[in-house]
Design brief:
297 residues, globular, alpha/beta, eight-stranded parallel sheet
Length: 297
């Protein structure tokens, strides 16, 4: 019988929950992480490059008008992953104020009902919301979307995907309380390089650490449902240096005790909408991601 939990925290490390067992029972084994990659190759080919990969990250581009058929948009970006036997994390943005006032209710209800007969998926309403709205606006709209969808399909997964950059001293997250929404999963888009050191693994990334402490640790239930919805490195000195940091992050995550590892981890390996080639790994760093997928998944 597990007797107690000990909260362990270091200066800028992710706080972890260590489960201590009696002499009769070993410490609970860490569960596999749902590992995914956003890459420039088709979903059907991902497993060749990253053996053991199980998820992808997909986007419906732009803020969708009220009359948009969200089912058709979702299928357009998710179907290739479903066909490959992968689980897509899909982002859709709708106008925040109109969403919060119910103007999109019928669209989200239709989407939730349609998803009942689709393979497994994770739906993200308005990824990186901190970049475009305050916490109160997000909380109102997110709650509306999730409530409507869960009423139509209790099994649907509706999650919040944060922008880690905005949690490092930016004004919209000065008060973290509104961002502690009830969700089915909690993700962070976390990039090293730029405002954070290129060598920073997640436990050294100031924005990610603050988001984890203020949202994951202080929102009921979030500690078991958090992960990385985008993870990338840039501005590293060489392909080998980036590979070394990815391996170091793998070792860090693999060393976390049961109940403290992320539930999912999606690595980013394309230029993205900003067309940044530095986000794309060379062969050594790509091999390091493959090692991570195999080790944690």
């Amino acid at each position: 019988m597990l007797k107690r939990t000990i909260a362990v925290a270091a200066s800028i490390t992710l706080a972890a929950t260590v489960l201590v067992a009696t002499s009769d029972n070993p410490v609970e084994a860490a569960a596999p992480v749902l590992m995914g990659v956003h890459d420039d190759i088709a979903p059907k080919d991902l497993a060749k490059r990253y053996p053991g990969v199980r998820a992808t990250r997909e986007f419906v581009n732009g803020v969708q008008p009220v009359k948009t058929n969200l089912r058709k948009k979702y299928a357009g970006v998710a179907q290739a992953s479903w066909d490959a036997g992968l689980i897509p994390f899909v982002s859709i943005k709708t106008a925040p104020a109109a969403t919060g006032s119910g103007k999109y209710d019928v669209r989200f209800r239709e989407l939730a009902v349609w998803l009942k007969d689709r393979p497994d998926t994770y739906f993200i309403w308005y990824h990186e919301p901190e970049n475009d709205m305050d916490g109160q606006t997000f909380a109102k709209a997110f709650k509306r979307v999730r409530d409507v969808m869960k009423a139509a399909n209790p099994q649907v997964k509706v999650g919040y995907s944060a922008m880690a950059f905005q949690w490092d001293g930016q004004p919209r997250t000065k008060d973290p309380k509104p961002w502690r929404v009830e969700a089915d999963f909690y993700g962070a888009d976390t990039y090293s390089g730029g405002t954070q050191p290129a060598t920073a693994i997640v436990s050294e990334h100031a924005g990610h650490v603050r988001w984890y402490r203020e949202v994951v640790q202080k929102t009921p239930g979030a500690a078991a449902k958090w992960g990385l919805t985008e993870r990338g490195f840039k501005r590293t000195k060489s392909d080998q240096a980036r590979a070394d940091e990815i391996d170091r992050e793998t070792a860090y995550l693999d060393g976390l005790p049961a109940g403290s590892r992320p539930a999912f981890y999606l690595y980013w390996n394309t230029k993205g909408t900003e067309g940044d080639p530095d986000l794309v790994n060379g062969p050594k760093a790509r091999a390091a991601v493959a090692r991570m997928v195999g080790k944690l998944g």
